[in-house]
């Protein structure tokens, strides 16, 4: 069984959550089993170990991107920076607001989180509409960093986020695609 199929078998689908008609893709089972968690992390680490793909820093999106990003950064022996929801970081920040289905949200990054020229891997658990990852990309670029790739466990291409991110010039790497499911 390939890695994608193996991981897909450990993602729980919760129907009608958080709203009727939504098929929520729950990644927590991937984290609960140590063997599955290792397969997941290794899939990212092996990709980003190669010379051309190796980042200077990993940035994780609030909140499940912290789980993945911190472990991947540790394994790559690079730093980790959190991109948080507004009001959660104690130091001077830059912020980016993005649109949600109903309303908007804002994410922040410490102004000293990355340096100009840093190559950054931007990581989250899932790409849906792409708003959070796009905001993270813009924040990192405001500080002069280059986002070498956006990474996530799950892509929900029917929601249009991955297409929008690629159209904006962000290469993406995802492990499981739930299109048409």
UniProtKB/TrEMBL annotation:
It is found in: Cytoplasm. The keyword Chaperone does not apply. One of its GO terms (biological process) is AMP salvage. Keywords: Cytoplasm, Glycosyltransferase, Purine salvage, Transferase. GO terms for cellular component: cytoplasm. The keyword Transferase applies. Pathway: Purine metabolism; AMP biosynthesis via salvage pathway; AMP from adenine: step 1/1. Its EC number is 2.4.2.7. It catalyses: AMP + diphosphate = 5-phospho-alpha-D-ribose 1-diphosphate + adenine. Residues 30-157 form the Phosphoribosyltransferase domain. Pfam families: Pribosyltran (PF00156). Catalyzes a salvage reaction resulting in the formation of AMP, that is energically less costly than de novo synthesis. HAMAP family: Aden_phosphoribosyltr. Belongs to the purine/pyrimidine phosphoribosyltransferase family. This is Adenine phosphoribosyltransferase. It comes from Variovorax terrae.
């Amino acid at each position: 069984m390939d890695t994608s199929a193996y991981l897909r078998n450990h993602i729980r689908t919760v129907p009608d959550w958080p709203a009727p008609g939504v098929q929520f893709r729950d990644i927590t089972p991937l984290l609960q089993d140590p063997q599955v968690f290792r397969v997941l992390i290794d899939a990212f680490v092996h990709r980003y170990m190669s010379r051309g793909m190796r980042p200077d820093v990993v940035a994780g999106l609030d909140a499940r991107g912290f789980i993945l990003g911190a472990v991947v950064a540790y394994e790559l022996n690079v730093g980790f920076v959190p991109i948080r929801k507004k009001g959660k970081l104690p130091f001077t920040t830059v912020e980016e607001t993005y649109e949600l289905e109903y309303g908007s949200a804002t994410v922040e990054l410490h102004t000293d989180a990355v340096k100009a020229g840093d190559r950054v891997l931007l990581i989250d658990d899932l790409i849906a509409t792409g708003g959070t990852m796009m905001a993270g990309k813009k924040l990192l670029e405001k500080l002069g960093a280059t986002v070498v790739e956006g990474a996530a466990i799950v892509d929900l291409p029917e929601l249009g986020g991955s297409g929008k991110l690629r159209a904006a010039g962000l290469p993406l790497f995802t492990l499981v695609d739930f299109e048409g499911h």
